[in-house]
Design brief:
Blueprint: H1 6-16, H2 18-28, H3 35-47, E1 50-54, H4 61-72, E2 76-80, H5 87-91, E3 92-97, E4 102-107, E5 114-118, H6 125-137, E6 139-142, E7 145-148, E8 154-159, H7 172-175, E9 178-183, H8 189-199, H9 214-226, H10 231-245, E10 258-260, H11 264-280, H12 288-299, E11 304-305, H13 307-311, H14 316-326
Parallel strand pairs: 1-8, 1-9, 2-5, 5-8
Antiparallel strand pairs: 3-4, 6-7, 10-11
Helix pairs in contact: 1-9, 3-11, 9-11, 10-11, 11-12, 12-14
Amino acid sequence: MHNVDTNKLAEEINRQGTWVNAVKSEMGKVVVGQDQLVDRLLIGLLTNGHVLLEGVPGLAKTLTVNSLAGALAAAFQRIQFTPDLLPADLLGTLIFNPQTNEFSPKLGPVFSNLILADEINRAPAKVQSALLEAMQERQVTIGDTTYKLPDPFLVLATQNPIDQEGTYQLPEAQLDRFLVKVLVDYPTVDEERAILDRMATSSAKTTTTAVVDPKTVIESRKLVNYVYVDDGVKDYIVSLIHATRQPGEIDPGLGPLVRAGASPRGTINLTLAAKAAAFLHGRGYVVPQDVKDLAHDVLRHRILLSYEAEAEEITSEEIIGAILDRIPVP
């Protein structure tokens, strides 16, 4: 990969990546603020990765995803996860036709480009694992037949951090399948004022117009694969991930706080996300800042805290921050 001409690549990225600003400005007509969330969704699209969103209700998570689907001319399905949801409600089922005496498949809502899995932690483990298989294999088996899911296929799952009554914690293996976990925060005062001006009417605009087709996004993924990552940056990423597993090596005080760190999937995802961030910035190479900017989102759901950390109310955010402070930047 050393023979990649990063200047040429940057030119190609800027030529082919014009859709990024078009999508952002189209979404900006509907969604106020939430720039970081929009960036993370685009990174998910460019890396073929799934996104977990955590935030209290009413922060425009559904609106953001819906407006992204509209701007992409992509098929969108919102699935409300509830305790009585069955895997067949998600994947589809076989329906018996008495006229022909045969079963025919009825495909479920998962056969879409963008899936919003709303309140994913409300559904039982069986449904979660059905979605997990679809996310991982990008195919679904109904009866004896396997059906390919469309491309792009992106799952955006939401969790409400406050109301834990009647929820099923997502298992670690499933959390690890998400490229990033984004914390969606309240808007700033200025943003909230803009929301009020724009949305406090029964005829507020909530739909976007298609400005790019999914094929263009798939083409852009090929360019993301070519984004150059210097050996120094690769070593930096590996050092960060290693420090999540052995935090005591960089700071003895951190050692007892972590039960398990990020897996090699974390290493791969942090690299991929940094490449996509470089693409969004119109660069043909990754800089250490790309890695730092994404470290929290890629790692926060991959670090398992010890009981000691939980007792002291130390979060994975603080541990990632401490690791970023102590690992020298190339």
